[in-house]
Amino acid sequence: MTPEQHKTLMKGMGVSEEEDKEWHKTHGMPGISNQPGRKTANPFAIGGGFLDYCVKQEWLIREGKGRNATYFATKEGEEELKKFGIELSISD
User: Fold this and answer.
1) Cβ neighbours of residue 18 closer than 8 Å, sequence gap 6 or more
2) Residues of the domain holding 43
3) Predicted confidence (pLDDT) per residue in 38-85, tens digit
4) Domains in the chain, number
5) Which of 40, 46, 51, 35 is nearest to 85 (CA)?
6) Which pTM value belongs to this model?
7) Residue 90, CB half-sphere, CA atoms under 13 Å: how many?
């Protein structure tokens, strides 16, 4: 499910965008890692503070928590992270 499809689904269920964002801050974005071709970011190359900033700017979507978290770039994020020289890899 793409982030856009997810937003449409949540809206149809009557969940506000703010409630949905709050849930994802805690739980991540389930199922997104199953989408081949998504671009992932290496959290160790980015660093904690900037990583959180990227998630808040919606440049990255976090799936999972702690050391097991995976970060996927949004289309806007791909462009913005290039400006900082951050390389993304394509997931299988």
Assistant:
1) none
2) 3-90
3) 788 878 778 878 888 988 898 888 887 777 788 888 888 888 988 988
4) 1
5) 46
6) 0.57
7) 3
